[in-house]
Amino acid sequence: MSRRFAGVIALVASAMALGSCGGNDPAAPADLTALAAVTPAGGTIDVNTAGPVTVTFSHAMMAGTEIYAALHEGDVAGPVVAGTWAWSAEHTVLTFTPSSPLEAKTRYTIHIGGGMRDASGRTVDMDPGRHMGGEWATRGMMSGGGMMGGTGSMMGPGWQHPNGTYGMVFGFTTG
Questions:
Q1: Per-residue b or e along 112-131, where b marks 16 or more CB atoms closer than 10 Å to that residue's CB
Q2: N or C: more exposed end of the chain, with fewer CB within 10 A?
């Protein structure tokens, strides 16, 4: 199979996954809001310290849910980077602007909490994030091996996804 054909198959599969977004629930609406893109994607290295940190959703999101987004230095149990999260005009793109430039040669982790809701108040399908280098944030990851690591407030009910995790995390390293 050619690379181009394999790429087309992967693209169609991704589109089908985003289109279905309901998983195994036949009653789930076909237009359920999904995590559509994360920049930088999980596992990315040599990220520009002045580059954008964005999270994109397939539909408009509820105002105020930006409180369920954080950028950590190190892993998800690390300290939260000071800065602000702001929505695009259409409330589909959430952009982080740090208070000071990110450090070079440093690992960071984007944390998108399970409390994210779309403009209709529905839970967001974050599972597509696994194809963007993300992983579900478990209690063990959040506690940093038993210590809260400053993320205790990020384990509350607003941060918890219906699947029991605390949203998704995407680690990247600056250049």
A1: bbbbbbbbeebebbbbbbee
A2: N
